[in-house]
Design brief:
This protein is mainly α and 130 residues long. It is 56% helix and 11% strand.
């Protein structure tokens, strides 16, 4: 299994460097590959900040990537929880932080929108500190 760096994943998603995109595509076609959530978090930032993609475009691209043959998330269950919360409007990094909190534990924040929207996004246990 080969874990991919952010720059490799970006080439797969955007193809902005044709030579590198082909190399990345050949790698994924030839052997099982994986991606960590920290790499996906960095990819989200790059896609939003550098390519001006919006949340639905980024979420869709990540889900498409994860559905490729020979490709898997390092933690599929956690990745699904994060992408679900992200798609429901939670910032990707916030979704990752809160989703890593074990069931039954609390995730304390001063972030009012996160605390307000967490439950509907499937992130239980997020509490607003006052």
């Amino acid at each position: 299994m080969t874990a991919l760096d952010t720059n490799v994943v970006i080439r797969l998603l955007v193809g902005d460097d044709a030579r590198q995109a082909k190399i990345a595509e050949r790698l994924v076609a030839a052997q099982p590959c994986t991606v960590t959530l920290s790499v996906l978090m960095e990819c989200e930032w790059v896609l939003r900040a550098c390519y001006a993609l919006d949340t639905p475009q980024i979420e869709g691209a990540m889900r498409d990537l994860l559905s490729l043959q020979n490709f898997a998330a390092a933690d599929a269950v956690l990745t699904q929880r994060v992408l679900d919360a992200y798609g429901a409007g939670i910032d990707f990094a916030d979704a990752l932080h809160a989703a890593q909190c074990p069931d039954g534990d609390q995730f304390a924040t001063f972030d009012k929108p996160l605390a307000r929207d967490a439950r509907k996004a499937g992130l239980h246990g997020v509490v607003l500190l006052k």
